[in-house]
Design brief:
The protein has helices spanning 16-33, 38-62, 98-121, 126-145, 149-158, 160-170, 175-208, 215-218, 225-242, 252-258, 261-286, 288-314, 319-340, 343-374, 385-388, 390-403, 410-425, 427-453, 467-485, 488-502, and strands at 78-85, 90-96. The protein has a two-stranded antiparallel sheet with strand order 1-2. It folds into two domains: 1-286, no CATH class; 293-509, no CATH class. A hairpin with a 4-residue loop joins β1 (78-85) and β2. It contains 20 helices and two strands. The protein starts with 15 loop residues before the first helix and ends in a 7-residue tail after the last helix.
Length: 509
């Protein structure tokens, strides 16, 4: 690791970022070796994700509160930079700032819960399942830490392949069709991004004589207006598919509802975040002039997506499909905050990325728990769960209230900051988005009424939460309440990165 960065950077001689990225990959290979011993596969997978979570938490406790605000890589407190394919200017460049640290923590946490949730539900091809789960985790972590565009694209594609097989093999319903649709949508956007990366690489080399894929060097590359718009559009399409942004959401309802619950957790809780993270980290900073021109379109699509998704969610009776549309709508708020590009709205979008992963992930897990017990997902098939499953009912009510933005819970913080930041730029967009929150309130409360307090239409004998399930949901509930009541540590962590990327004075005054 090179130690050529200015004083104030938190550089260490240990490759913590490399360990974070490749520990799940090593675990994946180990799990495949234990293919004939399912118990050992599960134990290995759990040990790996717990180790990942402990390392991420340890870094969160050790990082400096005020990393350097100037220098080669301002705002980053962990950097690993080594030549890789020097002939083409490709570097092994991993870096962590407050934003990527939050995403790494979220990834490690949800990967742990994905492994724990699957403990009893996956009984066939156990080694392949956990191996693919860990491989997807490795790819997602790489996306959040890579600052070389070639390396970023490599991880971007790595996370796609295991998720495709998780849907195709362990899914339900029209799982093959859903997996293929997911693959074709995402690979199409990814190929456009690859062309844009190559185009930017050539343009920078022609202008400066230095051919590189490193993000810090590519920032400020001189581009003709049309060239800049075309490259930005290619990046935007790739990120819009993964997020997704209306109207590129066609793959989402089927993939989310037909995937096994743990894979849905990764899709909604993590993969969707890679899209908005890409907008924030790469697309807007690399092509600021083109972003200014296309931002009104992005804002309109985000607002339309919020209203459209909420309307479709209200029409659903399949719980997972309802949650899929709800997730799509909530991602629209995050995109709207990024499009506004104010320190306040960007802070809200980043914290809402975490909040969405927690609350929507929890609700998808609870839908999976109901399906595991009854084999059903239709909301009309349930009722009176508050009396039959009191612990389940209490957690479901908490996460539902968090989803609709109740003050004192986590989603309220993110949505408030987003709407406040957007209002400064476009009051009309903020008001229409607020109408979307009202629609969320309607369909969420209807779902709560049907499941918890409505009459029992079909009798099911279902046990309440097991200790394993209780531990998962209690951990998520603590985060929901903690961030809702005291979000200051999270906001402090992202203050400098948001200020640097936005050109403002800080995330939250």
């Amino acid at each position: 690791m090179e130690n050529s960065f200015p004083e104030g950077f938190y550089l260490v001689t240990y490759p913590f970022l490399t360990i974070l990225v490749f520990l799940p990959l090593a675990g994946s290979l180990a799990v495949f070796l234990f293919g004939s011993r399912p118990v050992l596969c599960r134990a290995t997978a759990l040990a790996v994700v717990l180790g990942e979570l402990c390392l991420a938490a340890g870094l969160a406790l050790l990082v400096p509160l005020e990393p350097a605000a100037s220098g080669t890589l301002p705002g980053y407190f962990l950097v690993e930079d080594q030549p890789w394919i020097a002939t083409f200017g490709i570097r092994y460049l991993l870096a962590m700032d407050g934003i990527s640290l939050l995403m790494v923590l979220l990834t490690s946490l949800l990967a742990t819960f994905a492994v724990l949730f699957s403990w009893k539900t996956i009984t066939e091809r156990v080694a392949a399942y956990y191996g693919l789960l860990l491989l997807a985790t490795s790819g997602i972590l790489g996306v959040f830490l890579a600052l070389d565009l070639f390396l970023f694209y490599l991880f971007w594609e790595v996370m796609l392949i295991p998720l495709f097989f998780l849907i195709c093999v362990w899914g339900q319903g029209q799982r093959v069709k859903s997996a293929l649709r997911f693959f074709l949508f995402t690979i199409g956007g990814s190929l456009l991004m690859l062309l844009a990366i190559i185009g930017l690489y050539q343009a920078h080399g022609a202008a400066t004589g230095m051919y590189t894929f490193a993000l810090p060097e590519l920032l400020g590359t001189p581009l003709a207006p049309l060239h800049s718009c075309l490259l930005f559009a290619a990046f935007l399409l790739a990120f819009a598919v993964k997020t997704p942004i209306f109207p590129l959401h066609g793959w989402l309802p089927d993939a989310y509802s037909d995937a096994p619950t743990a894979a849905t957790l990764l899709l909604a809780g993590l993969m969707a975040k890679t899209g908005v993270y890409g907008l924030l980290r790469f697309a807007y900073p690399l092509f600021p002039d083109a972003a200014v021109l296309l931002t009104p379109l992005i804002s309109v699509l985000a607002v339309v997506g919020i209203i459209y998704a909420s309307w479709l969610a209200y029409a659903q009776t399949d719980i997972k499909r309802l949650l899929a549309y709800s997730s799509f709508g909530h991602m629209g708020f995050i995109v709207l905050g990024i499009a506004a590009w104010t320190p306040l709205s960007l802070s809200g979008s980043v914290i809402q990325m975490v909040n969405h992963g927690i609350t929507t992930g929890a609700l998808f897990l609870m839908a999976g728990m109901l399906e595991e017990r009854s084999g059903l997902r239709d909301s009309a098939s349930f009722g009176a769960l508050w009396g039959k499953m009191p612990y389940f009912g209490a957690f479901f009510l908490l996460f539902s209230l968090a989803t609709l933005g109740l003050p004192g819970l986590n989603n309220f913080v993110g949505e408030f900051l987003i709407l406040a930041g957007v209002f400064r730029v476009s009051p009309l967009a903020a008001v229409v988005a607020l109408g979307g929150i009202i629609l969320v309130l309607i369909y969420t409360l209807r779902l709560v009424q049907q499941l918890l307090f409505g009459p029992e239409k079909v009798r099911h004998e279902m046990a309440d939460l097991s200790f394993r399930e209780l531990a998962i949901l209690a951990s998520l509930a603590l985060l929901v309440i903690g961030i809702g009541v005291y979000p200051v540590p999270v906001l402090d962590l992202i203050r400098l990165p948001i200020a640097l990327v936005s050109g403002g004075t800080g995330g939250v005054p």
